Amino acid sequence: MGFLTYLARRLLFSLSVVLLVALLSFFLIKLAPGDPAVLLGGEGATPQYLEVIRQEYGLNLPITQQLVIYFEHLLTGNLGFSITYSQPVITVIMERLPNTLLLVGTAFVLSLFLGVILGIASASKPYSLRDRLISTFSLLLYSTPVFVTGLLLIYIFVIKIHAFPPGGMFAIGSQTSLVTLIPSVAYHMVLPVLALSTFFLATYTLLTRAGLIEAMGMNYITMARAKGVPEGRVIRVHALRNALLPIVTVAGVQLGLIVTGAVLTENIFSWPGIGTLLIQAVEYRDFALVTGIFIITAISVAAANLAADIIYGLVDPRIRSGG
Amino acid sequence: MSFVSRAARQRGFVAGVLLLAPVIIAAVFANFIAPYNPLLYTAGSPLSPPNPAHIMGTDQTGGDIFSQVIYGSRVALYVGLGSVLLALVIAIAVGLPAGYYGGAVGEILMRLTDLVISVPSFVLIIMVVVLFGSKVNTILLIIALVSWPILARIIRAEVLSLKEREFVLAARAMGGGSLDLMFDEILPNIWFRLMPAITLQAGLAIIIEAGISFLGLGDPNSSSWGRILMFAYQAVYSGAWWGLLFPTVAIIITVIGFNLLGDGLAKAFNPKTSGS
Q1: In this complex, is the C-beta atom of A243 within 8 Å of any C-beta atom belonging to chain B?
Q2: Pick from B121, B215, B241: which is nearest to A155 by CB?
């Protein structure tokens, strides 16, 4: 299988994920108790507006035609109209999405980077005191839900020692220029990024450790040592390359979990991303917005997965050379 | 050597049992242990710190946090174990034939598994709970429906590696049908590989339910640990640490307990490591 075939298959898979999520959204709204027009138009909608909704989505037509209309809308980027924001759903989401990507991206890079370093520190002396401390601490972090970590951080750093702001994304008045905005955003990001990172930090630490310890038992490592390669180089160059492959795979699988973490973290720290938007939409029963968020989240996760697949394909010579 | 004595020699298993024992006892005997109805808003005066009448303090309406934490173990174990058992049934139904028959059937089943894994499950759970009502059983069901794929993948991989082994071939030669081979020969031999994933999934389900309740979307008639944390979060600026501390400890103990239990069981079931 060549790299292009591999790429095409992964692309097709990503598209089917989005298709599945779109179908799920459609049928959940259909099957839910209550009138779909009321779900999409809001409980306070006038009869006239409900009629507009029925026309727009073709709710009086047979279900196959409704599906056709639904997918026509999706393909033109029309996710419906948000009653709480009086704006198209896609506009509302796109305003918030960059904030979520900033939070999630920073947490992801941080936890991956630190996790690999801690994993190396742990595996280079297996079963030493350092290894036991790192492993135990990782297991503890791994078993602590993201929102519990967030609450503890708020209690310690906001309420007890007033070191960080309780929430939001920047101080009022700082958005006038980038010079004041960037430091303010960075300052507001510290706690949410920390809360979101801990779980993934633990995962990558444990994975790197396990992968390295397994790799260190392999013949090619013994060979490298026998050739007189320094121990640090044996770990960093020879063992790490092979230990990192499963991390790329797991990083992809865990994107769904990072969404869970982001929704909870954003709501604890009032971070203006799509996680807080989702809960607001739920509270106002704005289901056009809720389904829109579901679909956009699925597209983001599928795109990130595709990126992980491409990296995997580039790193793993078995795929790169078409073996 | 019996399984029990093998398990008892696993440190992780023992630690897991010790951590989970109080949670199980609390869940089973909640009516006898909890001094108040966990849903009673006015068991004491609002936001009192821990004291002899309310050993874990009260929330902002005066609910007794100790009683809520005790009853919370019922919700946690019910959702954790219930959803993982249901997920296991689906995973066996998908993973066993996918590994045993392979070919087109296996390919289709595994693509389906990959698809379900890639759905942003937390958003889906929120949508289902909001659209169809937030009963504990609804939450349990939807968690099961999104969490089976991991188990199915493991089952399939194990079946693939076992189906050509001598004892399976011998059973087939003696005239065993496909179902007999799958359920009597192969399945019993993959439990120990599956056990860590099962307990991990139970812990994850507990965390997900707590998260849903924390966001205020849980069952209003059940005393979930996440729900206590939601009230504690609203009251945290008044300095009421007790509402945060006790449910947090309960969640961490339970999830670590499950994780250690799974690892320990795997080692006890696995004849290769049972001596260590």
Answers
A1: no
A2: B241
